[in-house]
């Protein structure tokens, strides 16, 4: 859904004619769009940068399309590190969207460090389940 830009971000809802607040609820300083909430948003940048560092990729996070291209080019094969990084990417996207929905609909908020911790916990559980296969 995120890759295909089919999530109901407020920029898409506005294009469909709905009257919604289009500001990003993660940083409160940008128009919500897929590209913003998953790559340009300062909140998401901090979270993804922590994931990159944790996976041993010491580079800056990229714009959405460039990040997808980098992931596609570099995360190939079945090495454990590649599998773990793919799980981190999926967990990152899931948690950012979940956080967006918590803030927009439930008035709940987690800071970056709490979200990073939650993503790492999720990934650890997934890795342990792979080890049991
Ligand atoms: Zn933002």
TrEMBL record:
Start and end residues of each Reverse transcriptase zinc-binding domain: 2-48
Pfam families in UniProt: zf-RVT
Source domain of life: Eukaryota
Name by which UniProt lists this protein: Reverse transcriptase zinc-binding domain-containing protein
Organism (species): Hibiscus trionum (Flower of an hour)
